[in-house]
Amino acid sequence: MMELTRKGEYAIRGIVYLAGKPLDKVCLLSDIAAAVDVPPTFLAKIFQQFSKIGLVRSFRGTGGGFLLGRAPELITLLEVVEAVEGPIIPNRCVCAPQDCDRSAFCNVHPVWKRVQGQVRDVLTGVTLRELADGNNQQ
Amino acid sequence: MMELTRKGEYAIRGIVYLAGKPLDKVCLLSDIAAAVDVPPTFLAKIFQQFSKIGLVRSFRGTGGGFLLGRAPELITLLEVVEAVEGPIIPNRCVCAPQDCDRSAFCNVHPVWKRVQGQVRDVLTGVTLRELADGNNQQ
DNA sequence: CCTAAAAAGACATTATGTATCCTTTTAGGG
DNA sequence: CCCTAAAAGGATACATAATGTCTTTTTAGG
Which nt sits closest to A38, CA to C1'? Predict the structure, then answer.
């Protein structure tokens, strides 16, 4: 359980690749996809999501492509993951206790809260800078 | 992401209910299902899985039913969750690095390892005793 | 205009989750 | 030795989500 989907995996690969490039280097989606071995059409959807929330910036037309929306040390892995996978929610009751008519007598709830906190803490503690370093083929 | 399935949720409800009963009290599946508001046929499948690994013991025929395989303070939430959801695997590469031809230059791998460890730690730290207490209608 | 490239939307396929039903096995009781 | 109770096991059905692909539209440069 708790498994990252392909989409999440691909998203990380793609944006980490970008983070390994100079901040002002505009990259073609097709190049990124080839470099990180992800279906280009799928990666396109992922980068559209990134673009909407500003994780990357996009330019259309000739000479267009993508670059990172912020410096890689300012983007956490949590942001990347949640951008495509949605929030970290070990159990429904964590985000919508009101929907769970059992929460009044449910001792499990606080456990899932703790799990959520731990996972978020780990992912918040990692930036794209760290992930790109030592991984940088330029 | 990382969401528990219904199956996992139902599994916890069911076995926590058992944990709230006297250790030698044989409970009918139909009673458990009704008490924790889970489809009986579905809960049956779940308890079959529990039974196979000894988390619960089952008795067939008249007077049959289920009881806990061990004292509730000796069963962790991790065991229960993994019994029905499989192992905690934030990413494939965590369990099968050899399958991931990227692991040689993948800095994300150790992060998922850390996530896995944190989640397992939290779930290992909770026993059915604690979950059943204050939850015990006898 | 013409071409390059991303954005947007529709669609297809497969896998997983969420069950239900039916038959078989096991056990107790008369 | 049946008869009934109850779990075990297997097959099936349905819904939802994951994993892509394809086509059209928008935007921008030359």
Answer: D20
Residue B33's CB is within 10 A of a number of other CB atoms, namely 22
B111 and A126 within 8 Å at the Cβ level: the answer is: yes
Whose C1' is closest to the CA of B64: which nucleotide? D6
A79 by DSSP, 3-state: which?
Answer: helix
Statement: the CB of B58 is under 7 Å from strand D? yes
A30 found inside a domain: yes
Q: Tell me whether residues B111 and A122 touch, CB distance under 8 A.
A: yes
Residues A134, B106: C-beta atoms closer than 8 Å: no
Q: What residues make up the domain containing B13?
A: 6-133
B112, B123, B8: which is closest to A1 by C-alpha?
A: B8
Tell me the per-residue pLDDT of B66-101, one tens digit each, with 9 for 90 and over: 999 999 999 999 999 999 999 999 998 787 655 566
pLDDT of residue B30: 97
Q: What pLDDT is attached to residue A100? A: 64
Number of inter-chain CB pairs under 8 A, A vs B? 111
Cβ atoms of residues B107 and A130 within 8 Å = yes
pTM of the entire predicted model: 0.91
Residue A101 within a domain: yes
Is A127 a domain residue?
yes
Residue A37 lies in a domain: yes
Q: What is the pLDDT of residue A98?
A: 58
How much is the pLDDT for B133?
85
Number of domains making up chain A:
1
Q: Is the CB of B17 under 7 A from strand D?
A: no
Strands B65-68 and B56-59, by their bridges, are antiparallel
**In this structure, are residues A132 and A72 in contact, taking their beta carbons and an 8 Å threshold?**
yes
Distance from CA of B106 to the nearest CA of A (A): 7
Q: Domain of A98: which CATH number?
A: 1.10.10.10
